[in-house]
Amino acid sequence: MASLRHRVPGGAKPTDKREDSPDKAEVRLAPDTKIVTTKQRGNKRRNGLIFFLGGLVGLLAAGFLAQRNDLLDLPELGDISMDNLIDVLPAGFVSDARDLMKGERDAVSYDSFQVGLNLSAQGITAKHPVVMVPGVISTGLESWGTTNSSRQYFRKRLWGSWSMMRALVLDQEGWKKHIMLDKYTGLDPPGIKLRAAQGFDAADFFITGYWIWNKILENLATIGYDPTNSFTAAYDWRLSYANLEVRDQYFTRLMSYIETAYKTSNKKAVIVSHSMGAQVMFYFFHWVAAPNGGGGGDDWVEKYVDSWINISGCMLGAVKGLPAVLSGEMKDTAQLNEFAVYGLEKFLSREERVEIFRAMPGISSMLPIGGDAVWGNATWAPDDLPGQKVSYGQLLNFKHYNGSSEYKNLTMEESLSYLYNTSEQWYVDQLKGSYSHGVAHTTAEVEANEKDPRKWINPLETRLPLAPSLKIYCFYGVGKPTERSYYYHHPENPFSSLNITIDTGLTQDNIDHGVILGEGDGTVNLLSAGYMCNRGWNMHRYNPAGVKIKVYEMPHEPDRFSPRGGPNTGDHVDILGRSSLNDMILRVAAGHGDEIEHNVVSNIETYADRVKITEEPEYL
Ligand SMILES: *[C@@H]1O[C@H](CO)[C@@H](O)[C@H](O)[C@H]1NC(C)=O
Ligand SMILES: *[C@@H]1O[C@H](CO)[C@@H](O)[C@H](O)[C@H]1NC(C)=O
Ligand SMILES: *[C@@H]1O[C@H](CO)[C@@H](O)[C@H](O)[C@H]1NC(C)=O
Ligand SMILES: *[C@@H]1O[C@H](CO)[C@@H](O)[C@H](O)[C@H]1NC(C)=O
Ligand SMILES: *[C@@H]1O[C@H](CO)[C@@H](O)[C@H](O)[C@H]1NC(C)=O
Ligand SMILES: *[C@@H]1O[C@H](CO)[C@@H](O)[C@H](O)[C@H]1NC(C)=O
Ligand SMILES: *[C@@H]1O[C@H](CO)[C@@H](O)[C@H](O)[C@H]1NC(C)=O
Ligand SMILES: *[C@@H]1O[C@H](CO)[C@@H](O)[C@H](O)[C@H]1NC(C)=O
């Protein structure tokens, strides 16, 4: 890593102007504080604080400390004064972080390479070329601009590094200007150039010490993978999918990579996608076949792709995505991993966050898909529990507003309509021009949609590729409470430009600071993770070629002593380090995918029965 030589410009100082941000001091306790490493200390306040800061944030502070203690190498920090930074960190943070850091270091080696070594001992070796497609937010973004204001950031990561943190603290305006796309074109603003980092480095670690894909890389390497037969297809997750091709020719590159891998190894590729990567791949499969896309024809996928391993995919979006763009909420929104969250939450107000999220059209691809048919109506939802008082289907609740028609409770469809009605035209245009969130009920509709790129992320409006020998593996975590519906109210701050914010003061019954939790992996709701894999793709119109789908649910059984949850976590991101997941990835890559058993432990079958989407009569 390069070190920072230049001086911080403009005499910027760590700012405390966020003190007046209305939501600054909120500390929300999540229901699963049991995973917190400090639980055993039995100190409630500290537990709350730690959870709020999150394991990663702990690492952040630990990083600062480490600079002093030589625990960690942080070359990118350059010449910022540690004291300045520590000043802006919350009280109590530093000592908690020290403990966390220690916990992480003790736990970090829990089974690096072990899974690979075990399998290797059983004779499992590399077979198919592997392409990894990371999720939203976990890919680093580097500046390549050379204008005056960008030069200082040349080839620094303005997302996913200590440089990001530094820029957020010292040059917030500059950082915002770089990170937000142009509202009208959805591309880089004039004079700014941010590109996804490339290679394995793009997504192995988010910041020093915080692994994302690294454990998978370690294990793959152990059975014989290296840069000649594996590849990280990193993308700029801020862009709408169509613009990934327009600006970066991402899909063209991916297509040619896979073709080359096939030519050189004579083996079809195994694709491993995480989170939003599932949607990117789903889009790619349409694109690659379509005449208005890659032009590969309907048999391209059959010819070049052996399997698609889809980890924690959010094919039907994540409920969390909605409050992010609606009101800048970010209780670890949509897999925003905690480091980023920490920075964004601490240094940016909600109003600024709304603006930033909306100016990243890629994030909006995670708005929930399927409307009320999947997510429920005003009185009922497929995943409601017996005896539930207020249905999950009532997605946005306005408790304190009696009768006033301006604030009626909203279902999923109404909430999206509310979002359209209240947001700026450029955002609405970006959304409507890029994505579609509905349901197609007939084969004719589904087939017609193959021509419409806006539908290509939506598995309820388009079909799987016509690749009868393709295998899809859906691996996802279950059993971690996940945001399912919300209580909203007027913002407390009368000067806020936001019309509504989450009523974080409301905690009663099952409402936790204005949020009602349901089932999922902590980020993606069970309905989104499970519906297509367990039901949707059994329907002829969505899977006419009969692609084989295997589901393996992984219950969240975190190790409380490990900040990242240890070898049995089901958490959306940390699952990438889970032993059983690594084991399965290696088996599929090695051509032993058939050894994996179908494993469904959640209630998804029951919920899927209730979803209001049915097979057409002629295929029943
Ligand atoms: C590796 O194999 C040993 C013995 O078969 C087993 O005890 C251990 O749990 C395995 N480790 C992993 C990470 O799978
Ligand atoms: C960039 O910097 C140069 C020299 O410092 C200056 O002359 C020029 O006006 C600057 N350009 C802009 C657009 O600020
Ligand atoms: C919601 O859907 C349920 C189940 O189909 C139905 O019984 C109920 O009448 C619907 N409620 C409304 C308000 O449409
Ligand atoms: C709720 O009802 C009361 C009495 O009818 C009314 O004064 C008040 O303005 C209402 N509140 C809202 C937010 O509509
Ligand atoms: C919205 O739902 C809440 C319960 O979640 C209820 O208390 C409130 O009266 C409802 N508001 C309207 C306008 O129906
Ligand atoms: C949004 O606007 C449309 C058209 O004016 C209206 O029919 C719809 O009810 C509005 N949606 C909400 C949630 O207010
Ligand atoms: C608040 O509502 C107004 C009027 O509907 C709308 O113009 C404005 O954009 C909304 N603000 C936000 C942040 O959505
Ligand atoms: C990927 O897996 C998720 C569950 O993790 C599922 O919701 C989604 O439908 C899957 N998508 C594909 C294309 O396999």
Automatic annotation (TrEMBL):
Q: Which residues form a coiled coil?
A: none
What segments bear the compositional bias annotation Basic and acidic residues?
Answer: 14-25
GO molecular function terms attached to this record: O-acyltransferase activity
The ranges of region (Disordered) come to 1-25
Please name the SUPFAM superfamilies in this protein's record. Answer: alpha/beta-Hydrolases
Transmembrane ranges, per UniProt, are 49-66
Q: Does the keyword Membrane apply?
A: yes
Q: Which UniProt keywords apply?
A: Membrane, Transmembrane, Transmembrane helix
Q: Which GO terms describe its biological process?
A: lipid metabolic process
According to UniProt, the name of this protein is Phospholipid:diacylglycerol acyltransferase
